[in-house]
Amino acid sequence: MNVTNEPALVRDRFYPRSRQTVGAARHFAAGTLDAWAVADRLDDVLLCVSELATNALLHGVPPGRGYRLRLLRFGGVVRVEVHDSGGGRPRIGGRSDDAECGRGLLLVAAVADRWGVGPRSPGKTVWCELDIP
Question: Could you tell me the CA-to-CA distances from 19 to 25, 30, 54, 66, 68 in Å, in that order?
Fold first, then answer.
């Protein structure tokens, strides 16, 4: 059996603590996926980028700091990572049906094939993976 291990494709960008950066992060992700010729699940990836970046801004980025968006493509997977320097551990919380916020990780869990949180010093990395054909 002949197996070829291709190196992962990686692109990342740092964003300051500002709500306006979520749109820029989506734009960066769309351009990256286009460069990698990934068209399948584009909307799912962009939704995950939006939700993870927004969560970092609301809960994980201390004043004066920022967050890093990293995109990786390896095998049949696109991985989205958002690195921040804040404390706490994100989790899917119980929200009422009429709540106006608090559904970000619920959406990520619904569209991604896998998601999780990893340690970082300082802070954490929240990631999700989407299988692509």
Answer: 10, 18, 7, 11, 14
Contact 110, 116 (CB under 8 A): no
Determine the Cα–Cα distance for residues 1 and 122; give it in Å rounded to an integer: 43
* Per-residue tokens: 74: 């390896």
DSSP class per residue in 18-67: -TTHHHHHHHHHHHHHHHTT--TTHHHHHHHHHHHHHHIIIII--TT-EE
- Measured from the Cβ of residue 62, the count of other Cβ atoms closer than 10 Å reads 13
Q: Are 27 and 11 in contact (CB under 8 A)?
A: no
Nearest one of 41, 7, 28 to 82, comparing CA atoms? 28
Closest residue by Cα to residue 117 from 94, 86, 74, 78: 86
Over residues 60-111, the pLDDT tens digits come to 888 889 999 999 999 999 999 999 998 877 767 655 555 555 578 999 999 9
pLDDT in tens, 29-47: 999 999 999 999 999 999 9
Cα distance between residue 119 and residue 74, in whole Å: 22
pTM (2 decimals)?
0.88
